[in-house]
Write a structure and sequence with these properties.
The protein is of the alpha/beta class. The protein is built from 2 helices and 6 strands.
Length: 133
């Protein structure tokens, strides 16, 4: 009986803390007016051709991005707050996995925002639509 109690207790603890505080992806209905400010980074050649979280092959020349919670297919306007330039990207991957960053952009999207050199820039993101893969 003692072992059963320990097993139940262990199961409850795992259920409460097993997610590590990660939030689940947002539902499409929750993102119609979604905006966020934070830091953007980009990823390129090292990941080119690898499978993204939604099953596509990462194409560093496509206008795509990774976000932790936005639904795949969300179209987001990303504005570089340092220079006012903006691009539209489709979310097809998960990330970034560096604390303090809100979006990882493809190489081409980052180039259009003039952020290749700095690598990380302050941005505002706004969901403007949805376009499945």
């Amino acid at each position: 009986m003692r072992t059963l109690r320990h097993l139940v207790l262990l199961t409850l603890v795992a259920a409460l803390f097993g997610c590590g505080g990660k939030k689940p992806p947002l539902e499409p209905a929750d993102v119609r007016h979604y905006t966020e400010k934070g830091k953007a980074s980009w990823y390129g050649k090292k990941y080119h051709g690898r499978t993204t979280a939604n099953g596509e092959r990462y194409d560093m020349y496509a206008m795509t991005a990774a976000h932790r919670r936005l639904p795949f297919g969300s179209v987001v306007r990303v504005t570089n707050l340092d220079n006012g330039k903006s691009v539209e990207v489709r979310i097809n991957d998960r990330g970034p996995f560096v604390k303090g960053r809100i979006i990882d952009l493809s190489y081409t999207a980052a180039r259009k925002l003039d952020m290749i050199g700095p690598g990380v820039v302050p941005v505002k993101i706004k969901v403007i639509g949805n376009r499945p893969g």
